[in-house]
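Archive entry: two folds, one per protein. Generate the first.
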Amino acid sequence: MEFLMSIWSYFATNILTQPAYFIGIIVLIGYLLLRKPLYEAFAGFVKATVGYLILSVGSGGLVNNFRPILVGLKDRFNLDAMVIDPYFGQNAVTAGLGEVFGRTFSQVMLLLLIAFIFNLILVRLKKWTKMRAVFTTGHVQMQQASTAFWIMLFCFPALGDTSILLIMGLVLGLYWAVGSNLTVEITQDLTEGGGFAVAHQQMFGIFFFAKLAEKMGGKDKKRLEDIQFPGFLSIFNENMVATSVLMLIFFGAILVILGKPYLVEAGFLAADKDFFFYILTTCFNFAVYLAILQLGVRTFVTELTNSFQGISNTFLPGAVPGIDCAAVYGFGSSNAVTIGFLFGALGQFLAIIVLILLKSPTLVIAGFVPVFFDNATIAVFANNRGGVKAAMLMPFISGLCQVFGSAIFASWVGLAAYGGYLGMWDWAVVWPVFTVLMKFLSYAGVAVVVIILILIPQLQYRAHPDTYFLITEDYDAYLEKINKK
């Protein structure tokens, strides 16, 4: 048993939670199952892995580039607060598990394994479960498994190791399968049959806001990509220019407020460097890293969706891979990403100001990952389904939900005391509801959560049973059938 655990630990540490290599291996296996020559399969592995590494460079660059702003807002105004960010959230769980519950973080790895197996079984039984997507975003699975483990211990502190891992594995595996399944139709529509779903931290949020955006749109809805500015405003028709200018206005103003003395003292800016050009470079780098991220998306998504047919045909018929939300940034309007980030940030900052004014016992610091990746993703889908107004309003509402939901929930479950909480939309809105049910209804609450999750894809299927599986199995045939209606 110990030998098997060491193998699993090695796989989880070096492959499953390292999405570049996990995606690369999926591509390799998929091409081999399609009977492609070994050299083609290896080339696909390389392109998919490198593509994801490029995406990681873009994502990491975005996070690090705006660290002075987020840290500065905390330090400059003497805010002692919890940071909503997946990495801060994971660190908080690690710090508190032993002290509060007497458990070790190694059990989180077991939870991840059990939940992932449940996800695969649910998709394999899609004829009955109606679930069509496999969650493959390993680093996100790790973050969610750690927070889910804390939540289950909070609800059932006296449960033994095996019982708690099995119960939480079932709930988390269902969440992964159901959440990524919710994004199948809207992602296929956005990408025109791209052959993947979104598997990240805001899957329920994406579905909710996409459906809400539809109410704002209509046949004559105007999307961001439909807008052509006249005269001197035409410079904003270029995504790179629009992104750079908007960042300069929005975050340039914040850097000016923070001031050069603070940035020098904090080590973000050398004393002999010009403050104006530091602001210019910081804001323009947003466009640079966004372009890198989109290049990575284009590089690995094609390989993954093409090769996954081998896995789908052999083991998981009709299934699609659920991948990082950044994969959709190469579709629709490029400006939707920037608009979503800005309006999501406005929502978060407004909510933080309200918490300060109300003298909330738990203050929140905006983490870059929720404010960008949640809200940019929601904006991409909202723009596609509802147009420009939806692309601005939905991320703004999302930003409010992230801060208020995280402040209340993290205080209640005790994670705020350790300085961080995951803070993404599903974990600020959906999981608090699940936790209330499990905490106050005990095992009956677990049953209610499981039943709700099982029912969601069944209701999706009943809404359009004739095209439900066709959309992943043969997108062209799906379009033909839709157009005939």
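Generate the second and append.
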Amino acid sequence: MSVCYHLYFWVGIMEQALADNLPQQLSELNIRPRAIKHGYTLQKLTPKDKEAVIEFLRRFFFLDEPLNQTINLLETPESRCYELEEYASSSLADGASIAAVDENGDYVGIVINGVVRREDVDYTDKSDDCPHPKFKRILKLLGHLDREARIWDKLDQSCHTVVEVRIASTHSDWRGRGLMRVLCEETERIARELGAGALRMDATSAFSALAAERLKYKKVYGLFYSELPYAPHPDPPHLEARVYIKELL
């Protein structure tokens, strides 16, 4: 892998996908949707934001992600996996991650993106270097996805840079407002600005796979968890891990 791993895409984006149908559903029930004031701005994240980013993810991502839940990676809300935290924050140095910040200066949504380049491709298994036995299982799975998907073989040779959507998470009070779609659109803008030829998204839940497809990503590889004995096996409907790409023309 060109960078160590590809992280799972947060199910919160699926809540936005479902929310797209909300006005029609409310109309059928003769209920008027309440107006919601956005009240946020977008800002790029840097390594200096690491502590605040990790605190946000501990509240709205780490405990709820299906793979983490399946193996009970964090046994209590106070539990910490420092290997996961380092992994999650390591992409901040790439300068492609963004946050939505409310009027009080607090994060309400985060997308952590990594930048990978064709010349840096490395498919060796990095999970052996992880001392945390539970998180090691996740890393091994993600490494398998990377090796088998081989996205660079599927992209035009003129594509030398890919931006990977690695973590996307929304504050629970802000879900269903279209915030995640805005963050993903901003990710695409940043990718173009960086000269990337494509975006990548690994979906490890049924919800995130549907969300990727709604955002016009194309599936290039899929694997049922049951095919890998060492992989976490989430409950239905999260039976398959998928790799998606979106070429930027």
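Annotation attached to the second fold: The chain has one domain: 12-247. Residues 133-149 form the longest helix (17 residues).
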